[in-house]
Write a sequence for this structure.
C-alpha cells in the first residue's frame, strides 16, 4: 500500500514536471513566432514608409507641374493663344487626376503603416508576456 502510494506520488510529480516543461516549450514557440512576426511587421513598415514617401514626392512634383501649367495657361490666355490655352487646360485636368491618385495611394500607405504599427505593438506585447510566462514556469 505504501509502495503504491509512493509510486503514484512519484508519477504525479513527474507528470507535473512534464506539464510544466510543455508549458515552457509552448511559450518558447510563442516567443519565436512573435519574434518572426515582429521582424515581418518591421519590414512591412519600412516598405510602406518608402512607398508613402515616394507618393509624397510624386504629389510635390504634380503640384509643381500643375502650377507651371496654370502659369502657362494664364500666359497663353493673356497673349490670346486660345488653342495653347485649351491644351494647357487638358494638361491641368490630367495633372489633377494624377494628383488625386497619388493622394489616395499615400493615404492607403498611411493606413497600412498604422495597421502595421498596431500589429508590431501587439506582437511586442505578446512576446513580453510569453517571456514573463517562461520565467514564471521555470520558477515553479
Amino acid at each position: 500500500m505504501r509502495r503504491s502510494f509512493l509510486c503514484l506520488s512519484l508519477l504525479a510529480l513527474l507528470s507535473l514536471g512534464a506539464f510544466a516543461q510543455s508549458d515552457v516549450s509552448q511559450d518558447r514557440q510563442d516567443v519565436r513566432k512573435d519574434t518572426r512576426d515582429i521582424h515581418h511587421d518591421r519590414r512591412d513598415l519600412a516598405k510602406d514608409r518608402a512607398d508613402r514617401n515616394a507618393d509624397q514626392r510624386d504629389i510635390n512634383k504634380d503640384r509643381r507641374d500643375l502650377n507651371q501649367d496654370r502659369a502657362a495657361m494664364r500666359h497663353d490666355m493673356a497673349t490670346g493663344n486660345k488653342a495653347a490655352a485649351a491644351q494647357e487646360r487638358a494638361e491641368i485636368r490630367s495633372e489633377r487626376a494624377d494628383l488625386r491618385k497619388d493622394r489616395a495611394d499615400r493615404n492607403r500607405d498611411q493606413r497600412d503603416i498604422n495597421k502595421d504599427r498596431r500589429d508590431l505593438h501587439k506582437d511586442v506585447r505578446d512576446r513580453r508576456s510569453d517571456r514573463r510566462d517562461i520565467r514564471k514556469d521555470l520558477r515553479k
Summary: The first helix runs from residue 2 to 79. Confidence is low (pLDDT under 50) at residues 13-20. The radius of gyration is 32 Å. The helical segments are 2-79, 82-139.
